[in-house]
Amino acid sequence: MGNDKPKLKLAVYWGAACGGCCVSVLDVHEKLFDVVANADLVFWPIALDVKYKDVEEMPDQHIDVTLFNGAVRNSENEHIAKLLRQKTKIMIAYGSCAHMGGIPGLANFSTKEELYKRVYEDSESTENAQKVYPQTETTIAEGKLTLPNFYKDVCTLDQIVDVDYYLPGCPPQTERLVEVFMAVVTGAELPPKGSVIGAGSKVQCDECKREKVNKSGITRFYRTWEKEDDGKTCLNEQGFLCMGPATRNGCGVRCVEGNAPCRGCYGPLDGIPDPGAKMMSAIASMLNEKEEGDIQKALDTVVDPAGTFYRFSLPGSILRRKQS
Amino acid sequence: MSNQKEEIRIGYYVCHCGHNIAGVIDVKSVAEYCAKLPNVVVAREYKYMCSDPGQELIQKDIKELNLNRVVVASCSPLLHESTFRGATSKAGLNQFYMQMVNIRENASWVHESKEEATEKAKDLSRAAIHRVAFNKALEKKKVPVNPTALVVGGGIAGIAAAMSLANAGKKVYLVEKDPTIGGYMAKFDKTFPTLDCAACILTPKMSSVLKHPNITLLSYSEVSEVEGYVGNYKIKVTRKPRYVKEELCVGCYDCITACTFKEGKFPDEFNFGLSKRKPVYIPFPQATPLVAVIDEKTCIHFKTGKCPQTCAKACERNAIDFTQKPEVVELNVGVVILTTGFQPFDAKKASNYGYGKYPNVFTSLEVERLVNASGPTEGHVVLRDGVTHPKSIGIIHCVGSRDEKTNKWCSRVCCMYSLKLAHLLKEHSGAEIYNFYIDMRTPGKGYEEFYDKLLNEGVQFIRGRVAEVNDWATTPEEKGKLLIRAEDTMIGMVRRIPVDMVVLAVGLEPGKDAQEIRKMFNISCSNEGFFLERHPKLAPVDTFTEGVFIAGACQGPKDIPDSVAQAGAAAAQALALIDTGHVELEPNTAFITEERCCGCQVCVAMCPYTAISFDPVKKASSINEALCKGCGTCVAACGSNAITQNLFTDVEIMSEIDGILIN
Q: Do B640 and A281 touch (CB under 8 A)?
């Protein structure tokens, strides 16, 4: 069908990311043939040997769709984000890091100085008596070496460039990506700019098969190894901290289906400016305790509350970062 | 993010409130500043915005300048929100397009620096100007008022309020936690300053309550649950088991005479333990209702199950029923009057006065019973041994009152009742009476005259706070006496006065269940724990919960005349509400967007007003608007952001916060 039509030009890039998002693109398996039949991959550092220079030479708006995964953490991420924006028609923040900051975004709970000290001085496997820290420029005998500038903040993609769509998940479910891709290919009507695509419009609990008993509220929280899951009751009601009540659905409740609490990678529903605060409100409402002291005691059993409630969303939240 | 296409045209008005605001805040500069903010068409300052010319200013601008939003920076919305809403709607604009900024209580009254207070007024105004653009047009709903009233507490205030309402033709439920109504007044011998017999004026009222066709008396009962809202409260009352059928008992005392205990053995609550009662008892001969009650804590049947049950056999009417269980009665009422009273200060807490350590230190309430002709000693004033007549008595004022260590407040009634007791003790015993007072507080009709009368009766008055009461005799004459050490500030020296009996004029405190009652009826307390009135001057019997009124000592220490007057005021307010026939509900209710609801039912469990129900077919929850009080709990709890609260939508709140922060 599509042979007379020009093929889509597709780019995939990773900023501050673990690589999982790129793997999720590879996970299309045999569907890759459908993708390749309809699109040319013009830039994808993990899979193709295309240089930055090649992208710089492309005309503006040359690329139809860019899947940008990873947060923006350094000057290189920022440069490529801006470059790709200039060259791309539809910029998609792909995965939790580009969408909300993701796991790398948790670094915003520390200052740059604290991070450097930990990584280059204090970590158990490091010996650095001379206190050598990364520099953006170093001159050696052979000439000048450069490194990208490490920013004090981890940013979401939309804090740096204009983003057309968000495809959430850590990583996004591959099936969702294929759906989105096929929609673009077939020229289906696209949702309004700024929409979250490839995901649902309700929270995880909507699809969750676990039973809500609602008999007694939570008196304390457990980490998953501290107590046996009964396999059928709502994880939160059992005291396992499940982010489902404040997390967008669309992944197929995969974690809970695998008997693990939802970690919140799909982010909040529309109109929630601070996912961590929303989750905390939701959790607070499930507590059985009514007196202030008891409430505090119950909440004290949440290990690392900031890291838990903002696990994927800190840079994009109102909280955004530790005050430096 | 504007949700409207229309151009936003804001009128901003800052009020001087005389010197209340303008004395601290530079209102002119605030108005000039706000005039330059986005969407502000006009910004004015005026001496009294709440006055008619002030309101007309707003109305004129709305019409002539085509305003569609109004911001008024003045006092608390509690005071004048309805005023300015009214002015706005009179000019044809929806009243909820008016946003109020409180720069009096929140700025001019609480800051000393004029510059900083002015800056704060600008910040708060900017927040409201940002917010008001997102305000939505809303309508108030009318709901009918159930014409039945609930009065909680059967002391003199409750009795007076219930009688007023019943006489006006309204059905009244009077709930009393004790087996009889009458409260503290029923225990007094005489009342100040007229010295008329308390029982003579109270007991006829008590029996009128019982006989009144419009009053349903629920004695030995407590309110256990409150639901609903103004005009439509659903109240659950738990009737404690008396183990005597109220409808059969005629108060003949046969069961009490027949009880296995031949003599009273347990402290009699009505006499503060000065006499003993049996497990089956009637609190006092004029108890209303005159029905026996069996105390399960002391009754052998309940303790061992091995009682011959002579009481039951003696009762010709078969009224005794050991199988009674607590019974819950559901009442539907439109208005509530709380008259739950006070508790006396625990004299043991003022340990320097030796109550509980020296037997002949009494509390004023014990002495009320001692001087009472129907009391345990039939009016004979005797020491704790029951036989010795005291020859000298010291009355210590302000016990537990006006004291940083205990209660800071003046309990208002102690000076007067101490004078009354001084008079009665002198009359009954002929003893030498010493009054130790800090200040003599006798403001009231005929009160100062009563004090004058006492001054001429040979009662001694020593102005000074008593440091200590002890029994450390230093001379043989002092042996066996109590020694009161006090500074006499009139002569500037410390005195040591030996007496046979000490009377502690204990103060008034919030009742021990005041907090529970407060939470149940969703009203506030002042710092000391007394129920908080809506306004100390202009709404003294209203509370912040519509349809709930307060009267008597639960609102603060007061004497019988004031309690009765307040009860009348509360009854009048309740009647006004009932006779209006309907109430307008603030549209600050929440609603659920069904498409977003995932049916998790977190909100259902959270709602304190049971306003939310889950529809298993639609798999979504919905909110009953009439029950919703707009507390916002569900809005915060909903992880799906499916719940929106009128007047407090996310965009309204966030734009207000933005307005504060963006400068």
A: no
